[in-house]
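Customer escalation, tier 2.

The customer says the design service returned an amino acid string that "doesn't look like it belongs to this structure." They asked us to rerun it and document both sides in this ticket. The original structure tokens are below, unchanged.
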């Protein structure tokens, strides 16, 4: 049996499972059934009489053979994605367009102003916009569905093919309701914060995972009373005095101005994150022009 006897579908499925180590996630990503994923992996293993994956304690791991095969398939899939993006950009060059992915904070609170200003300067350029989680933006970049991404949190492990440029620092602040007992205090001690109920993003989000790590560094393990999957729900819960939270200053700018939410000042505590521009390659002049524009403006 030769590797060329395998279909491209087999290679793409194997490569996806090697990256996610989860057949269910790969099935969702490839829009096929988990059974189809399992059958494809089984077919490769059967045809070549080797094990590519092993399962221990309900988790999937690559074997040595699987790791070595992945080194080759990942290069092949990247070349195919680059070829697809090249073909798509032939059209983009002609019609002066760019596909951009932005994560939630940037998309919901900043990008409309950015896009409006950019369109004034470059009225003939069309922007194809996607808004989603940071991971959604990264996945679309890697699968060549977008050319540039703007995200607020980087995952702890980033694919080496992705190029990253920090573009603006975004302050993270403790907030509470105007009715909260801390609302009229000039300063609050860190020890007082530790016993308060927190309202946080869903624990599976990058925002929550990265924020938990930052809080541990300053000695806080929050007592989480409520979890939500969007910032608007968190802001509403805070304003109703259901607990305190930590949010981007960008996200709560209007609420602070309208006195719907109060900022808590905690001595010697500085939390922030970076907005970053991500890309894989430079494909056309329109993309380069848009990137230069983003790097010049004050995003925060």
């Amino acid at each position: 049996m030769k590797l060329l006897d395998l279909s491209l579908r087999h290679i793409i499925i194997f490569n996806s499972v090697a990256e996610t180590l989860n057949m269910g996630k790969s099935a969702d990503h490839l829009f096929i059934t988990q059974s189809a994923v399992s059958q494809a992996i089984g077919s490769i293993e059967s045809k070549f009489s080797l094990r590519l994956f092993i399962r221990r304690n309900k988790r999937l791991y690559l074997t040595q053979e699987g790791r070595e095969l992945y080194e080759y398939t990942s290069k092949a899939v990247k070349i195919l994605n680059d070829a697809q993006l090249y073909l798509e950009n032939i059209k983009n060059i002609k019609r002066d367009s760019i596909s951009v992915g932005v994560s939630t904070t940037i998309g919901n609170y900043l990008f409309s102003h950015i896009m409006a200003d950019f369109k004034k300067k470059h009225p003939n350029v069309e922007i194809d916009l996607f808004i989603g989680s940071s991971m959604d933006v990264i996945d679309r970049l890697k699968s060549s569905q977008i050319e540039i991404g703007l995200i607020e949190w980087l995952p702890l492990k980033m694919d080496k093919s992705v190029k990253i440029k920090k573009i603006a620092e975004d302050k993270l602040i403790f907030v509470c309701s105007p009715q909260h007992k801390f609302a009229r205090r000039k300063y609050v001690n860190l020890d007082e914060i530790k016993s308060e109920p927190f309202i946080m993003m869903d624990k599976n989000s990058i925002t929550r995972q990265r924020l938990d790590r930052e809080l541990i560094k300053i000695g806080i393990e929050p007592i989480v009373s409520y979890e939500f999957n969007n910032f608007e729900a968190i802001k509403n819960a805070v304003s109703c005095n259901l607990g305190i939270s930590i949010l981007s200053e960008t996200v709560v700018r209007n609420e602070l101005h309208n006195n719907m939410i109060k900022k808590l000042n905690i001595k010697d505590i500085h939390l922030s994150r970076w907005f970053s521009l991500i890309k894989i390659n430079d494909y056309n002049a329109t993309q380069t022009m848009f990137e230069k524009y983003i790097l010049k403006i004050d995003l925060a």
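Tier 2 assessment: The sequence is consistent with the input. Residues 188 and 266 are 5 Å apart (CA to CA). The two ends are 56 Å apart (CA to CA). Sent an explanation to the customer and offered a walkthrough call.
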